[in-house]
Amino acid sequence: MYKNIIPIIGLAVLAAINNPVSGQQKTTKHQPAAQQKARTGKLIPNDPAVKIGRLPNGLTYYIRKNAEPKNRAELYLANRIGSLMENDDQLGLAHFTEHMAFNGTKDFPKNEIINYLQKAGVRFGADLNAYTSFDQTVYQLPIPTDSTELFHTGFKILANWAGKISMNGDEIDRERGVIIEEDRQSGKNSGERIRKQLLPIMLKDSRYENRLPIGKIELLKNFTHDKIRNFYADWYRPDLQAVIAVGDFDVNEVEKLIIANFSGLKNPVKEKERLNYDLPDNKAPLVKIITDAEQQYNVASVTWKQRGNILKTTADQRKNVIYSMVNSMLSARYQEILEKDNAPFLFAQGSFGGYQGGLVPKINAFQTSAGAKSGKDLLHAFTAAIGESERAVKFGFLQSELDVVKKNIEAGNEILLKEKDKTSSAAFVGEYLSNFLTGSAIGSIEFNYADTKENLKTITLAEVNALAKTLITKENQIVIVTAPEKEKANLPTTAQLLAALDNASKNLKPYVDNAVNKPLLAQKPIAGKVIAEKKFEDIGVTQWTLSNGIKVLLKPTDFKNDQILFSSFSKGGTSLADPNDYQSADNVGIITQSGLGDFNPSQLNRLLAGNTGSAGAYVGELYQGFSGSAAPKDLENALQMVTASALNPRKDTEIFNKAISDAKVSLENKDAEPESVFADTVQAVLSSYNKRSMPYTLADIDKISLDKALSFYKARFAGLGEQSFVFVGNFDLNTIKPLIETYIASLPTLNKKTDYIDLGSRTPNGLVSKTVYKGLEEKASVQLYIHGDYDYTTSNNVQLDALSSALEIKILERLREKESGVYSPGVSLSVNKYPRAHYYFTISFSCAPANVEKLIAAALDEVKTIRTNGVTAQDLAKFKSEVQRQQELNLRNNGYWLGYLTTRLKYEDELNQLLTAKERLNEVTTESSKTNAQKYLKQDNYIRMVLMPQK
Length: 951
Description:
Oligomer: single chain
Number of strands: 25
Mean pLDDT: 94
Strand content: 15-25%
């Protein structure tokens, strides 16, 4: 795969480059003396917990013992090469090489790596994966460590990728179609067309401009085998490679495994020089205005590029902290404006960071962007957005703003330290990868904690404002406009855009803080009591019944040191809305987005600065309730937010008016995008055009009333005696009890039983086929549904899961590996118990329009094979291994337990059903799968949805 790291700007993608990048550059200009002084500081010492070494052949390795998750390791092979190293006759072959690593090596022929790892419970795509960018190619292999044979084989696999890929000619030819389909799946849309026009601007006069990792399609179709073999031989070499191993293992044993598996790799006799490539400065502003028929929004942005440093010293780290502060404070200002109904832009943001998400190390950028309702409004929106950034540069920030940001950073810093022994192995890998690729520092958690704490004490407002003044420069400006084709005549000209840059700082006034200084709750509620207790010893759960009727399930855990999660539900939801006047109820979420009591969202964020406790209410179709999280010390704050959400919801006319205005703009432009039209059609068909399930229209938006939404919200939370709460995390029952009695047992109750209403939305029975013709590119999307009513039981669900897993394997093998017609086909299973028990198997993929019928037939042929023969023994073994391995991880995850216990309560299941999961898994056999496939994979109820290019 090639990875997308370009940021999404508001509601539109300013798709400059559709790749991950982390290149190097040479410094071409001296920095002023003031900046040279700012760079002083001591080198950040490497974390002593990571062992860094180098083999005689030049291969680097990083090894760290880390026990979270238990019996697991993250193994990575990093190659400091990518598409920048390609010759003109090799464009796309760095990425193609990555694909070939999964199509046969010396010790693992054909697809045996995938096959072997799937049998061990490692999932292809979700676990086992790789990506290629401009200057790096990285392979990732999360693997269990409790099997010596499997763990040792993991290093053998990495070594095979490093220097033993077979590059079989037939396999190369088969993979051509897959890569072409990868390009089709991720591109062939307005984003790709816009990107092609942006590249000469964003990457002007650099090698990056002509080295996109996906390459040139015509070359991919026709290159001779020697070209890719030469690329592999030239560039996959140990002096440009690193092995990263983090996990629950013995460090010395892993070092021996690396020495044994990688010492035999050789560098070429005549090594090609790995050159570093730069992104040149631009003195004059670069401007590009782009329109496209399928672009939905009017967006303008300006980027000010700057030269920077790789993080190596405490001075670098201090500067990064200040930039983070600036970004947070500026973001808060934009958010405050967006809470006003007269906001000058549809959306806007301003932030400092790596240029285009880290395109070239040591090149950063400050970017300001804005979206407008129309082309005519874009210049005003753009000017206002730049003006807000200029306000911060010109007048600086306030001490009150800085205090808020410092509190939040301090809270996050404390959590990192408290969770140091519960940090996942995957969290360390990125740091080591960055060190190998760019030389950035690897500070320990303890060092970074102490350094951040010191910075928070000593960073002054003057220092922050001084750095803010460097954000906007006179050089290295890039201005981009992307807009719908229909707005072309209404867009600002290049001269107007450049004038906005010059004039936005005029007539500005300093920012005024609108913080509200009062408590969230005027007074504590009158506490209720726990009146009954029940223990579920086998799963470590306690149930309390409160004096107001609310049930509370509590599961204390040690999975995280500083985390408590909770949620609740009771029946009702938006299903209880008036069927002839439901739009306001369906959009009751506007109430939860408006703040609490006297505090709008911006004011609430200021009030809660430094507090990790957070909670809010929700209203879904069938249920309403609360959800939240907190560090143990801040749980009371989260529970106060529950009380405030129930008793003191906020009505904010300005936020409501802005939301309605934005929704109308979104709907007016939505039909320009083929995927949106297709999604709306699928939604309508799957609900049999039930009016409550149909996509919204402008007429629906006009029917939404703030007063009616607030009234419905209050009705849903007027009586909470039927709520069921679930708490999971690091707490003590005796400590949490008074908090629950104060804030949960005090919630109001009406002593009235409520149920939801079945809205009658039904997926149509029989055979249904619908084709949507929309889009300019040669690209089709297919969604196939096999569905039906069924008896919802845990045993049936496991059998359905087995069928879904096997079908996913077969669809991938057939459509991708055999037909070379798709890149990443999907197979999913969805099951519902309420309001009616129903299952859906979904097969989805994108492909060339000419291949739609052939690939649908191939997919249905695989369904028929499973229906006729059942699941093969090999695929069953893969399924069972994956389930068992995933469950090992799930059982030590707070989020999993929260979802599991909540679902059991909703579905009125036995709470301890997971204890018999292994028995149900053992009941899945080839014969049982055949029986169930004949029952559930029959095509009596089959829906075929296809998106084709417009005629």
